[in-house]
Amino acid sequence: MKKTLSACVFVAASLSLTCCGGGTVDYAREFPRDTARAPSLGIQVVRDTTEIRLTNTTSRAFGPSTLWLNRWYSRPIDGLGVGETLTLQLASFRDESSEAFRGGGFWATKQPQRIVSADLESEGELLGLVVIADRR
Questions:
Q1: Which of 8, 15, 27, 41 has a 20 to 30 Å separation from 1 between CA atoms?
Q2: What is the DSSP letter of 80?
């Protein structure tokens, strides 16, 4: 009986650590305030509850880059080709402490954060994006 109880406690503890252990995200870092600012792009960032969508309507393709929200939360992207549309989950954006962006949604326990700015960090420069205001 003791062995069975011990095994159950061990399995439960292991599962809770696996499921709930946040850990750090390898891309979590501080906003690069010293990076050169380039002119803003006409790429719109549109929010749909727990995700954002952006389409590259410029004539310039971007390689591996970092997308920043509110100059606080970041997420790497593989690139953004001409005419390409990306849909990204807000929970995948992290701050320098690996805390996730509060995107909201049906099961949210805290008030969702608003998106007030978006920047694309690419090839050593920061490019501003156009944020379409939340309609809430």
A1: 15
A2: B
Q: What is the mean pLDDT of residues 37-42?
A: 92
Tens of pLDDT, residues 59-73:
999 999 999 999 999
The domains located in the chain, with CATH, are: 31-131 (2.60.40)
Nearest Cα to Cα of residue 30 among 82, 99, 77, 85: 99
Q: How far apart, in whole angstroms, are the C-alpha atoms of residue 52 and residue 32?
A: 22
Identify the sign of the CA torsion 19, 31, 109, 116.
Answer: negative
Q: Which segments of the chain are extended strands (E)?
A: 36-38, 44-48, 51-55, 65-69, 73-77, 85-89, 118-122, 125-131
Q: How big is the CA angle at 46 (ends 56 and 88), to the nearest 5 degrees?
A: 75
